[in-house]
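In response to the reviewer comment on reproducibility (Comment 2.3), we provide here a single inverse folding case reported in full, input and output, so that an independent group could reproduce the run without further information from us. The structure tokens appear first.
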């Protein structure tokens, strides 16, 4: 399937990174390395680029098990296909342990705010907005969405309420920061 330029004129990008980077894909029929990849966070699809033809292709989701790609600084992002409410979805794997942490990265288009005489907004362009949804997997079950608040964290881990309350009070976590949530779940895995 060929890809088009349907998002021209919108500020930002629909993909995770601005540029394609080298990565690895694990398909149902094998593993491929050193492939130019990017993640389409708007439609939740993996994109691959053919160097010879300079074409971008959308990979069939049913054929992709997982993929890993690196950003410009060399940090690796590993995505696995999980079932979210019965729909196959690519989730960024942040922690793999007794309690695992995954992040669903989505992008939406925020429309320009061009209004009447009383509109003071200067945003005269459409823009891609990124949002993250976090899921944990405990030993006993499937994906469980966690709310990005102290209350949501404590509801997800009632067995560690006292320790997590103290940790959250001390750490002042930004619930939109993947690195801070990753550190918190790593801490949860030390509590047994």
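Designed residues, in position order:
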């Amino acid at each position: 399937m060929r890809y088009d330029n349907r998002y021209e004129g919108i500020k930002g990008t629909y993909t995770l990174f601005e540029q394609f980077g080298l990565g690895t894909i694990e398909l149902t029929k094998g593993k491929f390395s050193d492939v130019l990849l990017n993640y389409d966070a708007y439609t939740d699809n993996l994109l691959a680029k053919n160097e010879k033809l300079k074409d971008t292709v959308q990979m069939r989701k049913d054929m992709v098990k997982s993929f890993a790609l690196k950003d410009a600084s060399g940090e690796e992002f590993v995505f696995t296909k999980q079932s979210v409410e019965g729909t196959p979805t690519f989730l960024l794997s942040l922690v793999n342990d007794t309690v695992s942490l995954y992040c669903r990265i989505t992008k939406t288009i925020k429309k320009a705010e061009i209004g009447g005489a009383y509109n003071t907004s200067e945003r005269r362009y459409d823009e891609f907005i990124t949002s993250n949804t976090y899921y944990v997997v405990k030993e006993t079950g499937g994906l469980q969405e966690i709310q990005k608040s102290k209350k949501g964290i404590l509801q997800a881990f009632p067995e560690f309420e006292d320790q997590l309350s103290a940790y959250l009070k001390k750490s002042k976590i930004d619930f939109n920061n993947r690195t801070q949530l990753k550190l918190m779940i790593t801490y949860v895995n030390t509590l047994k």
